[in-house]
Amino acid sequence: MNGIMETEATALAPAPSQSRRLASDADCDAFIKDIYDQYGSLLVRYATRLLDGDWHKAEDIFQETAARAWKHARFLGSRNERLRPWLFTVVRNLVIDHYRARRIRPLELMPVEELDTSSDSTASTINSHVVVQALGELNEQQQTVIRLMYFLECSVNQAAEHLGIPPGTVKSRAFYAVRALRKALEKQGILGL
Q: How many separate domains does the chain show?
């Protein structure tokens, strides 16, 4: 039985020349540079489409793909005809993993008052004195819906879940809140919103 196991082990083990397709770390780095140059923009665009336009997450997916390619560079280096499909498959699998993780671990909800919106570019634009005054003229429900949906860019379902109300109610409140905000801004002499 030892003779059988030894022949099986030698048959399964890769030959030394096959396991070292790329000779050094410099070759691995050059390999990754080639991936960035040749496939970087293609893979980011592909991931962005799969992620419904979230190009920040698409860049993260691409970087993870490049890291996995770097780990397997010694085996992928001489397989140019298989590299492109391998990269696209890894991107697709990482996007699937991302969606699965979000389904298992949904966004944590916290009170609207505790959320920091100061770093958001939308928040910095809206923090002008006139708009803050106009928001102050709205009732609390309207202010909360505007903060959730427009400052924090929550979806209708996320806002509904956070507020504990049906999505239709969120849509209705958002409609009337935007209308009231527009009237408040027109009252202050700001037009064209």
A: 2
> Which residues touch 47 (CB under 8 Å, ≥6 apart)?
57, 58, 59, 61, 62, 91, 94, 95
Question: From the centroid of its chain, how far is CA 49?
Answer: 11
Contact 32, 73 (CB under 8 A): yes
**Rounded Cα gap, residues 49 and 173, in angstroms:** 31
Could you report the per-residue pLDDT of 178-188, keeping only the tens digit for each? 888 888 878 87
Q: How confident is the model at residue 165 (pLDDT cuts 50, 70, 90)?
A: confident
Domain assignment of residue 154, given as a range = 112-187
Task: Count other C-beta atoms under 10 Å from residue 129's C-beta.
Answer: 8
What is the Cα–Cα distance from 159 to 152, expressed in whole angstroms?
10
Give the pLDDT of residue 47: 92
- Residue 12 in this model has a pLDDT that exceeds 80: no
Considering 38, 72, 104, which residue would you say is the last residue of a domain? 104
- 45 by DSSP, 3-state: which? helix
CA distance 7 to 43: 42
CA 67 to chain centre: 17
Q: How far apart are CA 73 and CA 69, in angstroms?
A: 6
Residue bearing tokens 């492109």: 84
